[in-house]
Amino acid sequence: MKNKIMLVIPTLKQGGAERVISELGNYFITQGVDVEIVLLAESDDFYPLDDSICIHRLGFINKGKMGKISSIIKTFFKLRGLLKKNKPDKILCFMDKYNIFTLLSALFLKIDVFISDRSNPKLRINFLMYMAKKLIYPFAKGIIAQTALAKNVIQKITNHKNIIVLPNPVKAVNLYSDISRDKIILNVGRLVPEKGQKYLIEAFYNLHNKDWKLVILGEGPLRARLESQIIELNLSNSVIMPGSVKNIDHWMARSSIFVLSSISEGFPNVLIEAMSAGLPCISFDCNAGPSDIIQNNINGILVETCDVSSLKESIDLLIKNNDFYSEISKNSLEARTFYNMETIGLKYLNFILGK
Fold first, then answer.
1. Is 217 helix (H, G, I), strand (E, B) or coil?
2. Contact 204, 185 (CB under 8 A)
3. Counting beta carbons within 10 angstroms of the beta carbon of residue 237, is it exposed (0 to 12), middle (13 to 18) or buried (19 or more)?
4. pTM for the structure as a whole
5. Of 20, 55, 62, 291, whose Cβ has the fewest other Cβ atoms within 10 Å?
6. Comparing C-alpha atoms, which of 355, 340, 348, 344 is closest to residue 7?
7. pLDDT tens-digit map of 260-308
8. Residue ranges of the alpha helices (H) in the chain?
């Protein structure tokens, strides 16, 4: 009999956790596992799934304080009822509050629940969330951390004995050998404060070389503020913000430098994707993620977080020094092997199935 794994996540809208869980689902199918995906909230799907994957939409809607509480309760009983009816062998859930929600929904049902935190482990959490993790995470059969730092933090809170460090698998990046690289600096991320695009725009403004373009892919609540910054710096002709796009690989093939300007990360999928595309990458050395991926000045460049001057100097270095550029580009391609789905996906599956 096939193993049945149920994957639980709020939505499949564009985002790092959503991409990883959808691709894990698709990979598990190739390994002869029955896969079901539970989407807790109402949202449009961004990532494609294998046709054989059954999707359950529980319809949580956040409408006002009382409406939210009512919807949480309804969704809880919908999920618990689904678990009782479909009887998965294993559950894999992403993101802290949904991990807690799923663990509570599965209590006493004799289903092994595996969870993974996806946010920066150094982010402050309120006392209620801290206590919820301390009391409820121990019910998990296993915990997946993205970095060694994340593992240490979770272990201190929960004293859990079965925690493994697994980086995210990189999606298969199309190299587009027929596309030539342009003088484009690329950034990909939601337009939110944590992604730090304002620092990148400022560094771009200060570049000595003025014939380059900056392309920022993504959408979010900071769009108007970033557009104002671009206008104030007279960069309207050189900074492009196309919004959320599905052809990110195409942009990576066209670009010559990738910059991750995040001031907070859990594990930056897009950084690995850019490296897998052979792009020399510069990243703020925020306290989780980039330093697990980049060896400074070997396969990328790490810059002190929010240091606009050093960010500008690092971009200038890649623009001016062809030998250094080529060496970083060549070394970054090793990410294609280390982080591919066959390698990481199998580690996920073996951990979940206890192999």
1. strand
2. yes
3. exposed
4. 0.76
5. 62
6. 348
7. 999 988 788 899 999 999 999 999 998 778 998 999 999 999 999 999 9
8. 16-30, 64-86, 96-105, 127-136, 148-158, 197-205, 223-232, 248-254, 269-276, 290-293, 308-320, 322-332, 335-338, 341-353
